[in-house]
Amino acid sequence: MTPPLQVDLNCDMGESYGAYQLGHDAAILPFVTSANIACGFHAGDPAVMKKTVRLCLQHNVAIGAHPGLPDLVGFGRREMAVSPEEAFDMVVYQLGALAGFVASEGGTLHHLKPHGALYNMAAVNAALAEAIAEALHRVNPELVLYGLAGSELIRAGQKLGLRTAQEVFADRTYQPNGTLTSRRLPQALITDPNEAIRQVVRMVKEGKVRTLPGEDLAIQADTVCIHGDGAHALAFAQQINQVLADEGVVLEAALLTKPV
Fold it and tell me: How far apart, in whole angstroms, are the C-alpha atoms of residue 88 and residue 236?
């Protein structure tokens, strides 16, 4: 008997800070299986980190660190000329901060997923990817490393023997080399929720995605990212959760076998 398809549904959370409230964390948590919590560099603050960890534990959602570049104004989406050593230090610092809150609340940290520009840079820059993977390996080699499917970050994690989860995006378009279309370019975002859901179902069930030029690209979907800060984020989370269930896909946090 063929085992059912399984996929993780993850969402970026804990992006509020100070007086600024962002996202719909509490409402979306029942519909996802893992959360990537901002660690204070691109968004978030200590109080928000603690609150978000507690919410994840209440909903039995796997907790991940979401380290980014030190750029609150740009929300971590602007590239910075950081060295591999600087990236290593940033990831260790932010991972350690969130791990402290998770431990203090009696939880277990599950994964690490870089944020924004750091994520996209590590997808194509092998030296940067290796620094991030090494940071995770040094702090806790049992954690899962989330990275863009087929990217340098996935390869770096596998090279170190880390568990990896190849990530696909519901609301982003793809280039022929497997990278995401830059947000600075037209058609980077898929704004039609039905189109986004069709893309997800095809990636999960067929292992293919249609690139922006119109050609199919083979892709592995271990975890699907949805965004929690849009005007229709909650409705989309509910809809994609239901559609995947109707398609016979089991939703469960990614915990993959280590490479051999």
Answer: 34
